[in-house]
């Protein structure tokens, strides 16, 4: 590829955003920096686009967003789908700009754009797609990625992230579009006046919150004391509306993380899975002494939590632990109240805790496992709904802090998760227990399962090649043992004979109920290793997990040799 020709073209044509021309001028004499911006088009898949904000074909900017939207518009206009699209954005840098540019391109192509008038959560976008009867949805967000990132998630008419088949068709349409000369672009104000761009009414958002409330098991939360952080993202409006309607009286919002801010000044990685992101909330807990600390990521589809540890401090609850707590709470409560459906179904992913199996068995729930990504859980809900069995679905979760207890949306929903966590914590408080007491009770009942996650970044063109070499090496020369444990089986999810869609994932099963799953991230240039053990007790499980982590790091070194 002639990177210099691309650079010269962008210097001439990408003049609407001064940030882009300034960036290109600053790096034009740095061949590595130029090639990194132009060595490929930003990848488009079932998660849409996601990348670093900046100049070039391998960056998030108004031109790559417009090009993707033109492809989406061409796809919609060729399909038997409603010619309307709902659009949302979170607090990410240039999020509002990218949302407006998306609306302009759609309007120019005869497609009505419904735009949220202010930042709103991703699940509220999933809700709006079906509430408004749209053919698609777009949420401008990079979820929990670092501040330099933004993204462009595309949703189908069912409110679920697009299927691989739809992604392929949209990508084919995108590849036919020249980002400078092949894009239709309406004047924003004129399109608003003509009704081609419309603002989503507040009634839609209120109906979303009410739909979440309708899923309440019904335990009183009025005595619950909460600290909440939206991590400078989009969750504050919906979460406050929800908690007020639930009757929560004592709510303290972490002040330095309350206002939307795409720079995320208190945490470079605004992910509630990471302690650093929750640190400001944990410090506030030392003063406020709440029953529960809750945090939502920038687009409010993931929820993290911490509970009193009985020693004067607070411990973060892992995504797997929260999934188990909510799953058990819902099953127990619904069984006690006679609201458990016939042949109930719960859904989780292949990388989530194996402990979900015995919990499901305890309550007679069918547990389905999908590939990583909540879109696959949403797909299972859609299949049940298509079969007239939507009520069978009771809960879905993934280890990366995503939860959903209803069919109101087709994506993980931190608003829904906050509601469940509050009810669960309040119920246990009535038994004189914290959520940490509760998870320890579950461990004692079902076994001491422990899970870990390791990741290694592979930046740039050379990094992607190294990551691909590592995956190929593990496929062709799989380890005979890991951490002293014999590998008893290997599953290659790319083979297509697993009952799931082919995916670049490897699973190694170890003796004594251990497991390692290796998977390239679908949203970042990094490799993820998911580790699972079951011990005879807490110390045994912790020791086995530590040994497995050390061995997994050695496995990752294959990619850098």
Description:
This protein is of the alpha/beta class and 561 residues long. The chain is 41% helix and 20% strand. The chain has 18 helices and 21 strands. The chain has helices at 3-13, 18-27, 31-38, 62-78, 95-108, 122-131, 164-175, 188-193, 202-213, 236-246, 275-288, 319-337, 356-362, 374-386, 414-430, 435-446, 460-476, 538-556, and strands at 49-52, 84-89, 112-115, 136-140, 149-155, 197-199, 225-229, 250-253, 292-296, 303-308, 314-317, 345-349, 366-370, 393-398, 402-404, 448-457, 481-482, 485-492, 506-510, 514-520, 526-535. A six-stranded mixed sheet has the order 1-5-4-2-3-6, with helices on both faces. Strand 19 (506-510) and strand 20 (514-520) form a beta hairpin. Helix 4 (62-78) packs across helix 7, helix 9 packs across helix 10 and helix 12 (319-337) packs across helix 16. The radius of gyration is 23 Å and the shape is globular. The two termini are 27 Å apart. 50% of the residues are buried.
Helical/strand content category: alpha/beta
Share of residues in helices: 40-55%
**Helical segment count:** 18
Q: What Rg, in angstroms, do the CA atoms define?
A: 23 Å
Principal-axes geometry comes out as globular
Q: Estimate the strand proportion.
A: 15-25%
Indicate the low-confidence ranges by residue numbers. none
Instruction: Give the CA-CA distance, first to last residue.
Output: 27 Å
Q: Please tally the β strands and state the result.
A: 21
Largest sheet: 6 strands, mixed
**Average pLDDT rating:** 95
What strand line-up does the widest sheet have? 1-5-4-2-3-6
């Amino acid at each position: 590829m002639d990177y210099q020709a691309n650079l010269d073209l962008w210097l001439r044509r990408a003049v609407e955003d001064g940030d882009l021309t300034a960036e290109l001028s600053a790096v034009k004499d740095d061949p590595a920096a130029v090639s990194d911006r132009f060595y490929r088009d930003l990848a488009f898949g079932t998660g849409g686009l996601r990348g670093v904000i900046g100049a070039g074909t391998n960056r998030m900017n108004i031109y790559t967003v417009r090009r993707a939207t033109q492809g989406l518009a061409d796809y919609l206009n060729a399909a038997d789908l409603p010619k309307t699209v709902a659009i949302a954005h979170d607090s990410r840098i240039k999020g509002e700009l990218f949302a407006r540019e998306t609306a302009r391109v759609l309007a120019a192509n005869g497609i009505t754009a419904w735009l949220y008038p202010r930042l709103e959560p991703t699940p509220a976008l999933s809700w709006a797609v079906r509430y408004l009867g749209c053919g698609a949805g777009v949420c401008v967000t990079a979820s929990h990625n670092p501040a330099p990132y933004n993204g462009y998630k595309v949703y189908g008419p069912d409110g679920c992230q697009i299927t691989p088949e739809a992604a392929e068709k949209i990508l084919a349409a995108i590849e036919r579009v020249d980002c400078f000369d092949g894009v239709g672009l309406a004047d924003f104000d004129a399109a608003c006046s003509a009704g081609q761009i419309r603002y989503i009414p507040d009634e839609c958002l209120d109906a979303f919150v009410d739909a979440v409330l309708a899923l309440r098991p019904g335990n009183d939360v009025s005595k619950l004391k909460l600290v909440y952080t939206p991590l400078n993202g989009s969750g504050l409006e919906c979460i406050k509306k929800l908690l007020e309607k639930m009757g929560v009286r004592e709510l303290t919002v972490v002040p330095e993380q309350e206002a939307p801010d795409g720079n995320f000044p208190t945490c470079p990685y605004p992910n509630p899975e990471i302690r650093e992101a929750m640190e400001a909330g944990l410090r506030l807990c030392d003063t406020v002494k709440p029953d529960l600390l809750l945090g939502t990521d920038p687009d409010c589809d993931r929820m993290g939590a911490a509970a009193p540890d009985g020693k004067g401090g607070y411990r973060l609850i892992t995504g797997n632990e929260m999934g188990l707590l909510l799953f058990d709470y819902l099953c127990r409560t619904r069984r006690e109240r006679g609201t458990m459906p016939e042949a109930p179904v719960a859904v989780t992913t292949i990388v989530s805790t194996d402990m979900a199996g015995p919990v499901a068995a305890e309550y007679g729930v069918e547990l389905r496992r999908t590939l990583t990504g909540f879109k696959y859980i949403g797909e299972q809900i859609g299949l049940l709904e298509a079969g007239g069995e939507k009520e069978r679905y009771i809960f879905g979760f993934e280890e990366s802090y995503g939860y959903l207890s209803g069919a109101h949306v087709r994506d993980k929903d931190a608003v829904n998760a906050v509601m469940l966590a509050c009810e669960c914590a309040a119920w246990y408080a009535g038994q004189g227990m914290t959520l940490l007491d509760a998870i320890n009770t579950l461990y004692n009942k079902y076994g001491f399962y422990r899970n870990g996650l390791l990741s290694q970044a592979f930046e740039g063109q050379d990094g992607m090649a190294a990551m691909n070499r590592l995956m190929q090496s593990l496929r062709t020369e799989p380890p005979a043992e890991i951490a002293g444990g014999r590998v008893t089986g290997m599953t290659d999810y790319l083979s297509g004979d697993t009952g799931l869609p082919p995916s670049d994932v490897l699973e190694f099963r170890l003796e004594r109920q251990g497991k390692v799953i290796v998977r390239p991230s679908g949203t970042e240039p990094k490799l993820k290793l998911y580790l699972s053990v079951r011990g005879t007790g807490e110390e045994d499980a912790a020791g086995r997990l530590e040994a497995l982590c050390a061995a997994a790091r050695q496995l990752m070194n294959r990619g850098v040799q």
